[in-house]
Amino acid sequence: MAAPRMNDDVQKMILDAAEDLLAQKSLKEVTLAQIADHANVAKGTVYYYFKNKEDILFAIFDRYLADQWKQLNDWTSNTAKDTRLPRLIKYVLARDIDKTGIRLHFIFEAADGNEVLRQKLMERYLKFEKEIAAKIQERQDNVDSDYLSWLALMVSD
Predict the structure, then answer these.
(1) In the Cβ-directed half-sphere of 22, how many Cα atoms lie within 13 Å?
(2) pTM of whole model > 0.85?
(3) Mean pLDDT of the 34-58 span
């Protein structure tokens, strides 16, 4: 049997289905069969795109961070908006607090001893923290932008 063609729509359907399930259950409670069923695809199709549940979670998290970064860039690029440092910090906190669910799955799994997941979480957080720090630095160069971005992410979690 031939492998399915790579299709961004199918991959998105799988990620959307997994995200829906993760809104209701922990990662340990969700099976690949449930994700496949919820996405209306065969279990083999899920395995074609992802090796395991952790890979699905990473893909969801990467999609989440890419969306956060795009929205942050759009917001800070809008010259009609007041994007001074206090408003930037408030924006980052409000956005992060509104979407804590997927990050909490990472935090719980890492705290439960999943070392691979913990490492990937740290890599992604450090990258996002640096991106936020750069935005803070653009607005005010006499502040500790690394500390403020770290603090914003910590408070939001």
Answers:
(1) 26
(2) no
(3) 94
